[in-house]
Design brief:
DNA-binding, 10 helices, about 210 residues, 2 domains, Tetracycline Repressor, domain 2, about 60% helix, homodimer, Arc Repressor Mutant, subunit A
Chain lengths: ~210, ~210
DNA sequence: AACTAAACGGACGATGTCATCCACTTACCG
DNA sequence: CGGTAAGTGGATGACATCGTCCGTTTAGTT
């Protein structure tokens, strides 16, 4: 993918502008959502649109680069979760981290979901993330911290549900996300007599601009 | 609001076209989301854009009119829930109905949430819907079917979370929604030692085009 | 059948975004 | 310094959608 070509090879001023663009993109995307006008990003960065397009040929390239840091944080949380001796706690901490970011940064959710589970890969082999997640779930289940009929797809379910909270004012969304997570985790732990409806294999990258403004 | 002026006063052909437009709007909105081009609706209805705009001056007017039927169904479910001798069951049935519609009809969620709780009003006095919902919750709690720290705002939370599932393929979304609802209800019923994070008072009508396409 | 007001639909100007082009500027190297 | 390639930014054309205007068609009446 162009746009993330080694920034070290750039001239000093270009590298400076690249950073300003990324910062502007984070701000604008967080505030207006992922499909804010490119020109708005350029204006905020104090550069011309040409500079923006030269550095990041597509919106996707820009968004991906802009949220690399957040993605890295998620990946780190993923590693932590895998390393945590208490798998249930590790899983919870991971999901809390991701949910918080999803709900705080307006534009992050689409980027993240689009890249998921690659997003959590972060230097691991391909498919390692998905596998690691499965392992995390398995360990938590064996530790008696997840009900038997829990399915890894329920993670996806949680993340999608959480993404529905984005767009609320920041504090509200944060509070809502935490309560949602708490509800979910209590349900994840408590086995109940009746069986659950079957899990659905969701296409995470298929997140489409659902709500839209009225 | 114009657009829903008594259709009975219209000429026969105009009334016919009005129906075709509404049907087309339901189809197009369901398929492409609420901000599909107005011209697409007109084309599908087999009328010119002028006809569309004459009948429904704004997108909101069109969307509201198009989903009136679904809104009425929700309102009916609301009445049923209030009448149900088993308040827990009534509440569940109501939410299942709303969640299913939200997830099935792409464009319904924004319209519904924008009108909520008016949407459930349906002939009652203003604020009656919200009050009725509170009563429903209260009754269910007294019947021991809801935990003590359940908050009416958790209904909102559930609806928003469910709206995050829209945009998935129809069958997937349906399955996911049902599983989500099951998880939620188990959590709603099961009191647990630790306390929940506080509920957040969410602005339902503040649903903004969050995800957007990457 | 003839008349008229209602209804129609395509054309059109306005607006906003995208993404490229090109003439000008500037950082870096000798 | 001075040369030059990299970098820049605004102008620009392509494109899509919006919402209105207006000449034409048609339903309903006499």
């Amino acid at each position: 993918m162009p746009g993330d070509a080694d920034p070290a090879g750039l001239r000093a001023d270009a590298r400076r502008n690249r950073e300003r663009i990324l910062e502007a993109a984070r701000e604008v995307f967080a505030a207006q959502g992922i499909d804010a006008p490119m020109s708005a990003v350029a204006r905020r960065a104090g550069v011309g649109v040409a500079t923006l397009y030269r550095r990041f040929p597509t919106r996707t390239a820009l968004a991906t680069a802009a949220f690399t840091e957040q993605l890295a944080l998620c990946a780190a949380a993923f590693d932590e979760a895998l390393a945590d001796p208490d798998p249930g706690h590790g899983l919870y901490a991971l999901l809390e981290k991701v949910c918080t970011t999803q709900v705080t940064d307006r534009g992050f959710a689409p980027v993240f979901l689009d890249q998921f589970p690659d997003a959590l890969d972060h230097g691991h082999e391909r498919d390692c993330a998905e596998e690691g997640l499965a392992r995390l779930v398995q360990r938590a289940r064996e530790a008696g911290q997840l009900r038997d009929d829990f399915d890894p797809a329920d993670i996806t379910l949680l993340l999608l549900a959480n993404s529905g909270l984005a767009g609320q004012p920041r504090e509200t969304a944060l509070a809502a996300s935490r309560r949602l997570l708490a509800y979910f985790f209590q349900a994840f732990q408590t086995q109940r007599p009746g069986s659950l409806p079957p899990p659905a294999a969701m296409e995470l990258c298929e997140i489409r601009r659902p709500p839209g403004r009225l």
